[in-house]
Amino acid sequence: MTSPSTVQDTAAGGGSTPLLSLRAVNKSFGAVHVLQEVDFDVFPGQVTALVGDNGAGKSTLIKGIAGIYGFDSGGYTFAGENVTVTNPKQANALGIEVVYQDLALCDNLDIVHNLFLGREITKGGRLDEATMERRAKETLAGLSVRTVKSIRQQVASLSGGQRQTVAIARSVLWNSKVVILDEPTAALGVAQTEQVLKLVRRLADKGLGVVLISHNLNDVFEVADNIAVLYLGRMAAQVRATGVTRNQVVELITSGRSGALGLAASEALATPPGARPDPTGPLGAEEAS
Amino acid sequence: MTSTLLPETVETGSDPTIKDAIGDYVSRVRGGDVGALPAVLGLVSLTIVFAALRPSTFTSAFNFANLIHQSAALIVIAMGLVFVLLLGEIDLSAGYSAGTGAAVMGIVLTRQEQPWYLAVLAGLATGALIGLCIGLLVSRLGIPSFVVTLAAFLGLQGVLLKLIGEGGTISVRDETLLALNNDDLPVWAGWALLVVVVVGYAAVSVSRAATRRKDGLHADALEVVLAKVMVLAVLLGAATLFLSRERSRNALVSSIKGVPQVVLLLVVLLVSLNFLLGRTALGRHIYAVGGNAEAARRAGINVARVRLICFVLCSTLSAVGGFLLASYDNSISPTTGGSSTLLYAVGAAVIGGTSLFGGKGKIMDAVLGGLVIAIIINGMGLLNQKSEVVYMVTGVVLLVAASVDAISRRRAAATGRV
To answer: What distance in Å separates residue A1's CA from the closest CA in chain B?
Structure first.
């Protein structure tokens, strides 16, 4: 137990091969170095929680994965192959879908319309409503969604949890392999949170790689298989959820290290890529700044 | 969260009967989804009022045909505005786009002495160009459409003056264009049009219901579909019968009967634009952008392109409306499409049920709302009311329509519909 996030019993993924893998990615906006040498793995059939304080770089990381913008440097492998993802279409083509925090649903359209928004099925230039409705029903049934009365009702009439369900269902409609959920339970009540978390679990059980971004450690410990902690633009640790305690995760989020886990003080900005951080060093000043 | 866990009741239950369909409609209206109801009620009540006050003139077949001619231009311009209003935008220049399109058509027709179809093409191209400029400024530069089209409203007024000359007019002498909004179809053609519309509507509805049922999806029961077809057939049949009567004061000198030609144009526009909005991906994207532009963008919809297309459609349809104005007036002047044309057209769309907030509206709204406004203007004219009263009454009706929109929205928000 001397090395931080690489020891086998706490290693993320539990020994399986990652579906999506980032190695030493960097991203800067002007002079601000937002992501520094970040490694990140998403495993099929597992929920990987991505946690970190505000400004830690969570959004930047997922936007890079989703192709909203490209990373400045670093490796991006998907299903074992090196890929380049610089726009959302490329990410979608690989099977990567993002469910955004503010939902991105159109209130004035019904559930079927929203599920197929922007990717309508057409037949001879006409919308193929019957096929879309059938596939929508199949998808919702496949996710064991039973709470919507009719899939032809407007999204405006749905509760927060149902809306989140629709947004998640949209992400799995396209044979997606990786689904990234940005704070899916942030605005939900207790029962609805439970409902959405069950859905998140079902996504993983169907073999998808799920990334769950959350501030709520209750949610994280309830569904996550792996926990990745970002601290000021660095990956403090990516570990099995069963291998860490709640307090350790809180320490990792707030200070970047917790006992043997996490960043080392000697991991300065100038550290060459691939260098092993020294787990015993104290928290460096540049980390805190 | 809906506590009922009944996903199957709606989908596998038996198809709704007429009673269910009516009950469903009533609950939708009570929930704030009033649709075309206010416009239809307005049409009926205004007709009753004017028919009671001027039984001999208002209800004559001559006046009924006249009403259609009066409202045609308004309806077409309003159809174009529906596209822009669906985005939550506005086109204040639609009236002068109509005038400018008509002026270009008139100039090509008279000064260039080209055939009518080239003149019409030139007019349409002018409308499309105006829409392209407005659309580019709104969608690429992000200037609010209110400002861009206000500038276009002022600018096009100048262009129209420049084209026609101060105090000048261009008279339209081309037979085809004059016939467009003055003449009638032969009586048999009017009936043929009726048959095509009713049979076409029935065929589309029945085949859609059949396809859906084959796919195991919920569909309207055959009796519901047939009831709708019957209502349509009776209403349109009565109108056609009425218009097929002789309405000339002196039938021996000149016979006037049949469905106005312009109805054919209105039907073609109504059906094709309805198809565009309701059955194509582009139409769906227009509603999506109007409902939540950010969601549409994230779903991969090219929002700027959708906006551009809507403004081009609006101005092009305005040009068509301009042709109808020119045909009705037999001439084009610097005031063609001016004064209250635009405001009446926006009013027509809103009275019909199109929301100024975007995301809600249909092409049919333009037709119903346009008829309501035309009936007010027509009926008040028959009552020998001065234009000051007509303006005031129209204003009140528009205000009522906007209130209905706002109130139904509040109800809709309360019951979870938009």
So the answer is: 44
